[in-house]
Amino acid sequence: MNNKNKDSLNREISKLGFAAIALNGVIGAGIFALPAVAAARSGNFSPWLFLFCAVLIMTVVLCFSRAASFVSDTGGPIQYAGQAFGPFAGFQTGWLTYIGRLSALAANIKLMVIYAGWFWAPLESGPIHHLAVTLMFGILTFSNIIGVRRSMLVVYLFSAMKLAPIFLLILVGLSRVQPGILVEAGLPEINTFGETVLVLLYAFVGFESAVVLAGEARDPRRDIPRALTLTVLTITVLYFLIQWISISTLPGLAESTTPLADVAEVLLGSFGAVLLTLGAVFSIGGNCSASMLSAPRMTYAMSRMGSMPEWFGKVHPRFHTPVNSIVFYAVVALALSLSGSFVWLAVISTLARLLSYILSVAALPILEKTMQPTEDQFRLPGGFLIPAMALILCLWLCSFASLTAWLTTAGFFALGSILYLASSRNRNL
Prior knowledge:
By secondary structure, the chain is mainly alpha-helical. The chain is 70% helix and 0% strand. The protein is built from 18 helices and no strands. The longest helix is centred in the N-terminal third of the chain and has 30 residues. It is globular, with a radius of gyration of 21 Å. The two termini are 37 Å apart.
């Protein structure tokens, strides 16, 4: 007899699966544009800046790894903040992160189709563009509804197709690197250093996509921490090598609008440019597939916690996936993508994510006191030194956000509060 709760999610994601989700959550469109931005702001010192950003974000990643070894339920940051500070804090953590990811998904799907327009111009705009955007949303929605195992196949496929051209670029480009560039590089201007780090850190955020899916992990307390740390270390090596190769190969890197495609053209000719353009399409597609897989689980988790309407918590009776949350996420993101009104949402994405990090890291000391430890649990060296460093990092970066971003975030906080109070009132009726 099958005793599995029909309203539960299947635990089918392995350590490799979480690594792929985290990798796709981090490597999106950023790495195909940021090499030029980094070169323009810091010149030949730019590879070292990527390493600096990696060290900073690793403090946050280690805190998430520790928190994930305590909490094995779906929701990630929602669960950490909720269990430490109460359901309202958990809801707001998830809500603001969700809004940021919703707008990012809408933007990225649109951008992916535009990139594909390099091969067929009608994809860049007009009815064909809208049809392609709709089709892409349909594919991602269907693959997620029919089961996490099938949607993981999409994630694996995009992972392989995005990494292949990047690895080829690195393999060929290593013969052209100039070691002297790294040694002789001058330090960037101190007055713009913080803003530069904030921009480049965008290339590293998104790892939290993996912890949201803890409720569908085979062994979340063991697999998620290892997957997160290994993935960020791997991405760090890739980013450093890509930037080193780029500044060694392309003298006009800072002025390039398609830096990696231009670098590939120098190294491999027109074939290289085509390959890296395909890599950009697959990279963005992989990022979107990871977002589509993890973000609906946030509204599902909030519904199960009682802070969102029960409708979001419905699970498909056959496939055991949060069907209503998936459909809602896809429909709203599609509407934003087709209308173009999603652009203004992008200004709060980074700030909302940093605030989510702050709440999650701040919850860690409370989880340490209230949760039962296990023998195979991921452990942080130095006690609370790393969480303290992570909090300082996030607060420091938040200080570079504009007043408009703060006011917009406050508006969404107010909207979330209304939804939360409405759900609470319905529960009490």
